[in-house]
Amino acid sequence: MNLIGAIVAITGAAMLAPMSIAAIYGEWSDAWMMLLTSLTTMALGLIGRRTFRHSEDVSMVQAFGAVGLAWFVMAAFGALPYLVTGSLPTVTDAFFESASGFTATGSSVAVDLTSLSHGILFWRALTQWLGGMGVIVLAVTLLPLIGVGAVQLATAEAPGPIPERLTPRFKETARRIWLVYAAFTVIQVVLLTVGEMNLFEAATHSLTTISGGGFGTRADSIGAFSAYSQWIVIVFMVIGGTSFALHYRGLRNPIQYLQNTEFRLYMSILALFSAAVVIGTWGSSAHTTIRDAVFTVSSILTTTGFATADFGEWQPALQLVILGLMFVGAMAGSTSGSVKVFRLEVLLSDSRAYLHRLLHPRGIFAIRSGRSPVTDDLARSVRVFAMLYLFAFMTGTVLLGMIGSLAGMRIDIVSSASAVAASLGNVGPGLEMVGPTHSFSTIPGLGKWLLSTLMIVGRLEVLPVMLLFTREFWRH
Q1: pLDDT of 352-387, one tens digit each?
Q2: Which member of 6, 16, 378, 398 has the greatest number of CB atoms within 10 A?
Q3: Across the strands, what pairs with 368?
Q4: DSSP state of 54
Q5: Integer CA distances (angstroms), 36 to 12, 19, 78, 98, 117, in order
């Protein structure tokens, strides 16, 4: 409860930024409502901090539970600006948009982005930037009282199996990673303003690119901007999909990138599937075909969700490629969602080692990530994660189809499966009725709550949320 109070207070403080944007653009009604909401949210958060003393000994189970609860509460308070300004009229839609924002998913129920104020558009972008690197990790760096249990809390929220340390003190590691994250964001803002984007558009798109979010300001996403802007976004989507700990080391010594086997595999997947899409979509304009292919593969692989082409209109084989990429993700320690390249590498090595044992029962075959051996505990955790992830995907697909039937509408299997895959992997757009040229507004209300939950499940990588639904956790 102490941690949740801190997260609520940070959420309330963050609302002051879109409030200021609304005031700058003369949107005074939205500005006053956001100011009132911000002050109320901060007050409630600070009351929670004062009421509940922080624990001196945070167990891993407590950390997982606290993080799981905190993200649901954060999404609930993050929905308030949409409600108080009338941007989204229902609690269901507001919570969906808020969950999609903080989890950097990018799925949206907003039908007409031009009807949203500058303040709300900036709030959508800011929630993705905060959630991309992790609000709890930010709290660890800002609030000294969360020093105890910082590693446990970061492990429960980290976008990867192992939160890497750059310094002996984890708080200093988190601070350095956040500085790299902020620096890349500023650089992208500058580069985008060199093109045709104004400062507001450059800022909002930079916040949602480096975070792997994908919220934009126009209905046709990045397709509304020039080839220059699209290539800049491609570069920073790839940067966002790279481990930020690797960025910290690589910016000092670039050879670190080439020596990292996960990074090499990540770039190989990007190049291979981009080439496959280029071949499958080859048209009259070579530059446009290559740019759209690289952009789409980068967007789906890094789970950013921007679009320059309607891949829902591509041939079925290429749509299967897109759906498959939703289960890959980029590097561990990046802002990417989904399974991550590291886990796929471990699963492949584990499978290869198992096949070798069948041929040579007395042999000893290590599971490796690159040249480094992987411990049995880590390999087991990857297997458990993969099983739970697939279970969540299959269960969610069935439930969404059933919800559609109960609501009197038909959600076809492609739409249902891709919507669940996109939500669980924090990708954004899916296929068919939830494709890049559509919104999630047509999904029934109960289906939106299901997908919102799956977004948080995917962002926290299943376990923290799964624990909340076990009897043993509440007895602990």
Answers
A1: 888 888 888 887 788 887 777 888 888 888 898 899
A2: 6
A3: 373
A4: P
A5: 10, 10, 14, 18, 17
Question: What's the Rg (C-alpha) of the chain?
Answer: 21
| Tokens encoding 151 | 């590693």
Q: Quote the DSSP letter at residue 326.
A: T
Residue 325 three-state SS: helix
Which letter does DSSP use for residue 87 in this model?
S
**Residue 150 CB coordination number (10 Å):** 23
Provide CB contacts within 8 A for 253, sequence distance 6+: none
Q: Give me the percent of the chain exceeding a pLDDT of 70.
A: 92
The pTM score is 0.92
Residue 450 tokens read as 């299901």
Ranges assigned E (strand) in 256-389: 368-369, 372-373
**Which residues does residue 369 pair with via DSSP β-bridges, in sequence order?**
372
Q: Which two tokens stand for residue 465?
A: 């949320």
- DSSP for residue 55: P
Name the token pair of 234. 């491609």
DSSP per residue, 411-452: --HHHHHHHHHHHHTT----SGGGSTTS-GGGS-HHHHHHHH
Find the angle CA(267)-CA(271)-CA(274) to the nearest 5 degrees: 135
User: How many other CB atoms sit within 10 Å of the CB of residue 200?
Assistant: 16
Query: How many residues in total does the chain contain?
Result: 476
Q: Give dist(CA 235, CA 241) in Å, integer.
A: 10
The CA distance from 236 to 241, in Å, is 8
pLDDT recorded at residue 194? 95
Q: Which residues pair with 372 in a beta bridge?
A: 369
What is the separation, in whole angstroms, between the first and last Cα of the chain? 16
Distance between CA 430 and CA 428 in Å, rounded?
7
**Structure-block tokens of residue 357:** 């044992």
Q: Cβ atoms within 10 A of the Cβ of 244, count?
A: 24
156-173 burial by CB neighbour count: b if 16+ within 10 A, else e? bbbbbbebbebeeebbeb
Q: How far apart are CA 68 and CA 4, in angstroms?
A: 10
Q: Which residues contact 112 (CB under 8 A, 6 or more apart)?
A: 219
* pLDDT tens for each residue of 130-167: 998 887 777 766 665 554 456 666 666 666 655 566 66
